[in-house]
Amino acid sequence: QAKAAGRNTLRFFDPQMQAAASARATLEADMRLGLERNEFLLYYQPVVDAQARITGVEALVRWQHPERGLVSPAEFIPVAEQTGLILPLGQWVLETACAQLVEWSAQASTQRLTMAVNVSARQFRHPEFSNQLLSLLRVSGANPYRLKLELTESLLLSDIEDAIVKMGELRSIGVNFSLDDFGTGYSSLSYLKRLPLDQLKIDQSFVRDVLNDPNDAAIARTILNLAQSLDLGVVAEGVETKGQHEFLLRAGCKAFQGYLFGRPVPVVQLDLRVR
Ligand code: C2E
Ligand code: MG
Ligand code: MG
Ligand code: MG
């Protein structure tokens, strides 16, 4: 970054950058406190099948800040990544998600639900990631077959050999893997073939205009065909309207997530009734 800006650029004295740096430092200090004070919580968004039955949820972290109110992950996940706080935060997310799976496993009506958890690059790259997750699964008693880790293309491509090894270790005990925001990155098809994935998630940017933009429609269809050829599942993200849902259904999509089926909510508000 410094290189790109040029050797002689007086980055340090750029007032805008300094303001951004100090905002980041405040956020970082706040996050540390927030972790100690248990200000983070998980929201859950339903994932449904072709009959609109809930098959699982995606866990989405929120921060209940004492002054700022509910802070979205788009704001704090990047800072957590930069500062390393993603390690304790990511571990807390996995622990909480596993505890929820264990709770659901005790009841017939919820025991088959899957739990998707987003894992960020720095967290996944940590040399102890697989070991920690293996031991968490053992200690918590959560069923690894119900757990889905969502990774992004950039994360996987940054060190594909390492990713393949880690995914293999976790998959051998049943953990599933999804490629999140698919289509927005740069995966080549040969990489895609090598990765031990279970599922692709069509990014919501393609779903949004799928009815009006022929390019987005073509991309959505291409992802569905590709997934079928590679024997992968597909979830369409960000489905908000009946029109989008019908288009995707007709194109062969069998799993959906979006406001049409349910917004992310705290567990007590989650409506798990079969519709
Ligand atoms: P993501 O994993 O792609 O999650 C989907 C995002 O789309 C969520 O935003 C969700 O609330 C939103 N969404 C779902 N359905 C709709 C819809 O119909 N319309 C629209 N407009 N949006 C919809 P959210 O919860 O703000 O999370 C944003 C991103 O933050 C996530 O994107 C994920 O990359 C990251 N994130 C969230 N929780 C975690 C976490 O526990 N760990 C890590 N590392 N990242 C997380
Ligand atoms: Mg996700
Ligand atoms: Mg996504
Ligand atoms: Mg995203």
UniProtKB/TrEMBL annotation:
The source's domain of life comes to Bacteria
- EAL domain: which residues? 24-275
Task: Report what the protein is called.
Answer: GGDEF domain-containing protein
Q: Which organism is it from?
A: Rhodoferax saidenbachensis
